[in-house]
Each structure stands twice: as structure tokens, then as C-alpha cells.
Amino acid sequence: MAISLRNLSVDYSLPQGTAHALRGVSLDIEKGELLGLVGESGSGKSTVAFALMGLLANNAKVTSGTATIDGKSFDLTKRNATAALRGRGMAMIFQDPMMSLNPVFTIGTQLCEVLRRRSPGSDRKARVGMAEDALDKVKLSNPRRRMNQYPHELSGGMRQRVVIAMALLSEPALLIADEPTTALDVTVEAQIMREIIGLRDRIGCAVLLITHSLGLVTEYCDRLSVLYAGERLESGTVRQVQRQPGHPYTRMLFDCEVPIDRERQADASENRFTVISGDLPDPRRRPPGCIFNGRCDVSFDDCAVINPGDYPVGNEAEHRARCLRLATP
Amino acid sequence: MTRSQRTAAFIASRLASVVLTIAGATLLLFLMVRLVPGDFTSVMLGPRATPELRAQITHDMGLDRSMVEQLWLFASRAATGNFGEDVVSHRPILDIVLDVIPNTLALAFSALALALVVGIPIGVIAALKPGSWLDSGLALLSISFITTPTLVVSVILFLIFAIGLHWLPVAGAGNPGDIMDRLRHLILPSVALALGWVGYISRLVRAALLDTLAELHVRTLRAYGVSEYRIVGLYALKLALVPVVSILGIGLGDLIGSSVVVEIIFARSGIGSLIFNSIAQRNYPVVQACVVFIVAFYIVANLVVDMINALLDPRIAVGRG
After folding, report:
1. pLDDT in tens, A291-315
2. Quick check: B210 contacting A, CB < 8 Å?
3. B216: which chain A residues are within 8 Å (Cβ-Cβ)?
4. Claim to verify: residue B97 and residue B221 sit in the same structural domain
5. A59 and chain B: CB distance < 8 Å anywhere?
6. ABC transporter domain: which residues (chain A) (predicted)?
7. Does residue A275 carry a pLDDT above 80?
8. CB nearest to B224's CB, from A86, A96, A150
9. What was the pLDDT predicted at B269?
């Protein structure tokens, strides 16, 4: 097991009280594997990433959680537990490439900064060469010229490639990509995903892809975990989950995807899309029973009382979901 | 256009505006000087001067001509660097001003350098741990520096280090040929002038740094394990210095203004004390020449500030900033 995250819980202290952003979330990612972490806004996806990196906001507190990365264990409740891994064992690609590079330093300087840490023995010339090489690998045209350009001279997609080049240079065991294509044109999405997969193939790292898009996950990921209101509701291989969603929430998420061949009405307002009605539960007070109970279309009486365990779906050991309907009596 | 062409165009357009600004400021100042009540002849010659002598001096200074004529004469001469002859000392006014300018520039720039060298590190240290006791202590220090008037600071420094301890000279700008002596004479006045600016700069640097540190590109550096010292002291600081440098341009006017007080207290010759004495005498031509130089200095300083900012932030030279 290359990467494992066990029982991660994170609280945010807010003026209105303590919000429990994550409750006992566990994940496993094999080397060379892409795990998609799916959930709607506010489900705690990015909190998982920042807790792993140790970059949570000051009002956040990890109340429990252990990460095992490349055989070493880290107690995430300690501040900066994984500081030694940043830029070495772990790298991250961010949601907003327009903002994630420093506007007053050249691309080259920022890439070489990553190398200062990753290969401390190298001299400047060697670093420049490695950085240029990385830009070439992420298919940024004219890498030598790019090195002396500033971020504002590059498009969003090009800037995201620069950040991917940074990740490439740091040769991580775990790459976290937090909504890497959300802020970009749809036309660039496939290219950026291809570069992330290319990076994975080159260094054989594990990739945690955080996204709200099931489409992205089913297209590119090996396995997926579904996060809802800070709890993991389902996990399995993409094929398993796609064929037989174990949790009603996962099934409803798939139903929300708009099939490309669906018939369209001439009057756009006549079109009907599937939505999941209701809102996320109050993160300060978890209701008893199943966390999804309020919005579930197949709930029964016990769902409001019993907090479901993590049950296997069908006969496949790796595919599990937290729904009482799967409990064997 | 390439970046260097854009930079050249940027500088050219700024130089054109410099010429216009100096012309406008000169006109304004010419009119304003004449609003000061009292006239040169009665101040200089006293109430018992003969009407003939008054008329002679008034004629020598060109004050008997019409305003439009005076302005034209002043402007056309000033454009060629001729500010006329001083009726008191019978020396060319240009020479008088050029004699004292190096003293004032030395004072202003040493004060500015001191303020930057002390103020920026204080701001950086305060921003490293916002809300800590160190931050609060530095805030108290900075704000007391800002709120104590230069006049009070000058007198206190003067009393302690010059009169009380005899560590440093009391007055003057020092022996012209002796660099060490001049530097010793420069210490107290420049500290007095710099102190308020130490406070300003440290507060500005702290605020700008904290704003910058909240930006997303800082998170990128942290995610790649760049040390907090390099992030604050290099990557965030360069960006945070842009607003600080902009304010320095405006602040240089204040620095020259405060130098009037400092030069008088420490009895230094300089453009500040020259203006002060000339206004007291209603010696308009000298005042005018001084102010033209100050305006020119101020404008050139701001041009330099803009160029420094264009160097710091490449987005400015493109013309968007």
C-alpha cells in the first residue's frame, strides 16, 4: 500500500460554533493509481487535501488521523506533521492556475525554487536545465523562452502546465490534484488530465484527484471514493461503482450527469434535469442515523436511528458503501 | 512590441509629463509667492529707507513690471537655467541654490536609506508572527515614531547626544573638505528626519506583506516546501514592496518639507533653511528658484519610483498598472 489515510477528522472553529468538516475519512491509493475523490461543494474534499499537506487554515484543527506515505506514518493531529514531505514526498496542483503562481517572479525562478529543495546539491545551471526539461515534458511550447516569462504572459492552461511541471520536478510519492481543470476551458481539460496521467506514468506516483465531476472520474480514474458532508459514503473501483452504485447518493450523483444523447426540448426551459433535492446537513450538529437520511429517496425508519457501518457491495471485497440496505441481517 | 520597446515607450511618455508638470508647478508657485503679505523692500531696507532706494531695488528685482511680464521673464530665464542675481549678496541665484542642494540631498537620502534599512526589517519581523507580543511591541514602537513630530525628535536627539553626551557635533554641516566630519554632522539630523519614516515604512511593509501572504501563490510555495523565511523575505516581500515604493514617491515631498525644520534646528545650510530665510526676507526670486528645484526633484523622484516599480512588478511596464 503506497498511501493510506486513516480516520481523518477535521474541525473548523467558526464564530457560529465548531463545524465538523470531516469525520473519520479513510482512503487508500496504490502506487501508480488514480483515486477520484468526488463530492459536492462543502463535502470536505479540499479539506482532505490540505490536511494531508498540512496547509489547513489557522481555524482548522485535525482531531484524528494518520497518514502512511511510502512506509512512514505521520500523526496528522500534530501541526506540520507532513512538512518534511512537502515538495519531496507530496506535491499538489491547485484549482486556480491564474492565482497559483507569483506574479513578480519568472516561471524559471519558481520552478528552480522547487529544485532547491528537491535536489539541494545541484547548481543553478543544472536546475535551469532540469526546469526547462520539465516544461518540455508537460508540452509547454518553447520552454527556453517560457523560463524568462512571467505568469501574466501565459494563459490559464499554460500556467496549469507550469504547476504540473513543478509537481514533476518534485517527484512525489503522492500527487494531489485539487479540481485541476475546474477553472479552465473545457477544451483544455483533456490536455491537462493527459499531462497529469503522463506525470503519473513517468514517476509512478499515486494520484488523488479531487473533483465534483463524476464524468472526469469515470473517464480517468482507477478507483473512486464518494464524500458527502464530511463522511465517505462509498468506495470501489470505477467499474464496480459505475455498474452497481452501493449507496443511493452515488446512484443519484450518476443520475445528475446529463447524458449527451438525451432528447432536448426546443424551449430550453422545458428541459428537465435530475437534481438531488434538499441541502447538506448542518456541519455543527450531525443528525443521528445515516448522514444522507434527509435527502435519500429509499430511506426507511432505521435510517434515522442507526449509523450504518461500511458494508461490502455484492461479492467484491474492495467495493464498500455505508448504507443500511446493504447490511446483512 | 517587445518588452524593452514597451519599457522605452513608458519612460518616454513619463518624461513628457515631467516637463509639463514642472511648467505647471512653476506657474502656480509664481502666483502663490505673490500672495505672501509684505514686500521685500520694507523688510530688507526697514521703514526709513529713501523712496529712491526702494524704487531702485524694486526695479532691480523686476517687481515694477506687470505680472505677465514678470512671469514671462522668470520662465524664459529659468528654462535656460538663469534665475537672475540675488539683490542681497549680488551672486547668481543659481549658484546660491546649487551650493546648498548637496547638503539637503545628503540629508534626505541618508534619512530615506536609514528609514528603509531599519523600517523594512521591522515590518518583515512583525509580519512573520502577526498578533504575537513581538508584533504588538513593534506596532507600539512604529506608531510612537510616526506620531512624534520631527521637531520634538530633533530637539531631544540634539539635547541628549550633542549637548548632554557630547558624542556628536552640535550644529552645522561640517567641514566641506572633511568627509568624516560631514558624516558626523549628518548623523543626528538624518536620524531625526528618518524616525517617523521608519514607523511609516514598517507599518506599510507589515500590512502589504500580510495581504500578500494571504494570496494563493504563497500557498503554492508552501506546498512545495519552500521555507517560510524565503517566502516572506523574498517571494512575498518583492510583491509587497510595490505599494511601499509608490508611497515613498509621495513621501519624498514630506521629507523635504520636514528637512526645513531639521536644518534650522541643527543650523545646517540647505535648501530648507534657504527657503525659510528667503521667505522671511520676502526675497521672491530666491524662493522661486528653490521651489522650482524642489518640484523638479520631487517629479524626478517619482519618475524613479515608477521605474523601480516597473522593475519590481513586470505587469506595470505593460501599461496595465
Report:
1. 998 888 888 888 888 899 888 888 7
2. no
3. 94, 96, 99-100
4. yes
5. no
6. 5-254
7. no
8. A86
9. 82
Q: Is A88 on the interface with B (CB under 8 A)?
A: yes
Four-CA torsion A213, A215, A219, A224, nearest 10 degrees:
50
Q: What is the CA radius of gyration of chain B?
A: 24
Residue A308's SS3 state is coil
**Could you say which of B79, B107, B128 is where a domain stops?**
B79
Do B70 and B144 lie in one domain? The reply is: no
Last residue of a domain, one of B79, B112, B136: B79
The pairs formed by A110-115 with CB atoms below 8 angstroms and a separation of 24 or more are A110/A162, A110/A166, A110/B221, A111/A135, A111/A147, A111/A162, A111/A165, A111/A166, A111/A169, A113/B221, A113/B224, A113/B226, A113/B230, A113/B235, A114/A87, A114/A166, A114/A169, A114/A170, A114/B224, A114/B226, A115/A169
What is the distance between the alpha carbons of residues A243 and A245, in angstroms, rounded to a whole number? 6
The total of structural domains in chain B comes to 2
Mean pLDDT of A54-81: 90
Nearest to B115 by CA among B57, B181, B198, B55: B198
Mutate to test the interface with A, among B221, B224, B235, B237 (most CBs of A within 10 A): B224
**Contact check, Cβ <8 Å, A114/B223:** no
Q: Buried b vs exposed e over B216-255: b needs ≥16 C-beta within 10 Å?
A: ebbbbbbbbbbeeeebbbbbbbbbbbbbbbbebbebbeeb
Regarding whether B164 and B40 lie in a shared domain, the answer is no
In this structure, of A39-43, A144-148, B223-227, the range with the lowest mean pLDDT score is A39-43
Quick one: cell of A59? 481555524
**In the 8-state DSSP scheme, what is residue B130?**
T
Q: Does A55 touch chain B (CB under 8 A)?
A: yes
In a domain, B303, yes or no: no
Are residue B16 and residue B132 in the same domain, yes or no?
A: no
CA–CA min distance A154, chain B (Å): 12
> Is B121 domain-assigned?
yes
CATH number of A3-89+172-261+270-280: 3.40.50.300
Sequence length of chain A is 329
* A229 min Cα distance to partner chain B (Å): 25
The DSSP symbol for A182 reads: T
A218-265 per-position pLDDT tens digit: 999 999 999 999 999 999 999 999 989 989 999 998 888 777 677 777
Could you tell me if residue B315 is inside a domain? no
Spatial strand order in the sheet of A3-14 = A17-29, A3-14, A60-69, A72-75
Domain boundaries, chain A: 3-89+172-261+270-280, 106-169
Report the residue from A90, A103, A110 with minimal CB separation from B239: A103
pTM of the model: 0.80
Whole-angstrom Cα distance, residue B96 to residue B34?
A: 21
The answer, for A300 touching chain B at a CB cutoff of 8 Å, is: no
Mean per-residue pLDDT pooled into runs of 10, chain B (321 residues): 71 78 79 71 70 78 76 77 75 85 86 91 88 87 85 78 71 68 77 88 92 91 90 91 86 81 82 84 80 82 84 70 37
Domain assignment present for B225: yes
Out of A166-170, A184-188, B56-60, B147-151, the most confident range is A166-170
**Do B24 and B112 sit in the same domain of this protein?**
no
When scoring B4, B132, B215, B220 by the number of chain A Cβ atoms within 10 A, the one with the most, hence best to mutate, is B220
Give phi and psi for B197, each to the nearest 5: -75, -30
Task: Provide the residue range defining the domain that includes B41.
Answer: 3-79
- Compare B272 and A105 and report the one with higher pLDDT: A105
